[in-house]
Design a protein that fits this description.
olfaction, 2% strand, single chain, Rhopdopsin 7-helix transmembrane proteins, 316 residues, olfactory receptor activity
């Protein structure tokens, strides 16, 4: 309690929140959170290993999947330090500089993941619309440039955030709503005008996540138009089946994001536990489930993973 009072007095740190109103229940989440992070690392590492080892998977679709796996792991690792601090070590205090650094990386990798999903939608569009030129259009150089562009865009649009937060005075409460740092969460604690921060956040969301969602939707409209022009029903199903895993990954990212945004905007009457749950689902669930979805729905990856485990078992 003494540390908390000192923190409130000098405002050189924030206090993270585990389960709102139930700090005694925090240790109960330590094991499931540890399991989620372990599954994230194991699942995405398996995907990356399989794609690297199997020469038949050295195709544009799987290169984009590798970028998605790297982004998922990076996003999870951005939240890991503060999650461990709150739920494992019961030390919720975090310095303002460390909080701003974590905030930067969480937002960068979140926006980068949206950009990667757009890239994967473009990949599926090219594969279905012009299969004969698929490999010649999406060459290794083009894929690398697309990946760099996705991360560069994310860094550029998030770069002002640390400076916009750093300029704000925090002379009231410094208790955050989550067990990690977000721009909108820290902004509400300021005792000065946050109009610039609000406008900046709105512009970033519209020009990145909003625009990305529109581009993905347009891509699938064009994909569906192309598929409906295929005469054979079997070929139609085959073409659509190649998109299923990406559609799942897209829904896993955007549905929790939209849900968390709507609850934050219109669900102020709801329990803080609901807000925390939705925010954690948005950040923690997609990195866990994406490798599972691609392993189950992509025959080549599923077969290679089975072969890898059978080889290890026979060797043992």
């Amino acid at each position: 309690m003494m540390n908390l009072n000192a923190s409130l007095a000098n405002h050189q740190s924030f206090v993270l929140t585990g389960i709102p109103g139930m700090p005694d229940k925090n240790p109960w989440l330590a094991f499931p959170l540890g399991l989620l992070y372990t599954l994230t690392l194991l699942g995405n590492s398996t995907i990356l290993t399989v794609i690297k080892v199997d020469q038949s998977l050295h195709e544009p679709m799987y290169y984009f999947l590798s970028i998605l796996a790297i982004t998922d792991v990076s996003l999870s690792m951005s939240t890991l330090p503060s999650m461990l601090s709150v739920f494992w070590f019961n030390t919720p205090e975090i310095s303002i500089d460390a909080c701003i650094t974590q905030m930067f990386f969480i937002h960068v990798f979140g926006i980068a993941e949206s950009g990667v999903l757009v890239s994967m939608a473009f990949d599926r569009f090219v594969a279905i619309r012009d299969p004969l030129r698929y490999a010649s259009i999406l060459t290794h150089d083009v894929i690398v440039k697309i990946g760099i562009a996705a991360f560069t865009r994310a860094i550029c649009v998030v770069f002002p955030a640390p400076f916009l937060i750093k300029r704000l005075p925090f002379c009231q409460s410094n208790i955050l709503s989550h067990s990690y740092c977000l721009h909108q969460d820290a902004m509400r604690l300021a005792c000065a005008s946050t109009r610039i921060n609000i406008l900046y956040g709105l512009i970033v969301v519209i020009l990145t996540l909003g625009l990305d969602a529109i581009v993905i939707l347009l891509s699938y409209v064009l994909i569906l138009k192309t598929v409906l022009g295929i005469a054979s029903n079997a070929e139609r199903l085959k073409a659509l089946n190649t998109c299923f895993a990406h559609i799942c990954a897209m829904l896993l990212f955007y549905v929790p994001l939209i849900g968390a945004t709507m609850i934050h905007r219109f669900g102020k009457h709801l329990s803080p536990v609901v807000h925390t749950l939705m925010a954690n689902i948005y950040l923690l669930l997609p990195p866990v489930l994406n490798p599972i979805v691609y392993s189950v729905k992509t025959k080549q990856i599923r077969r290679r993973i089975i072969q890898m485990f059978q080889w290890k078992r026979n060797k043992a």
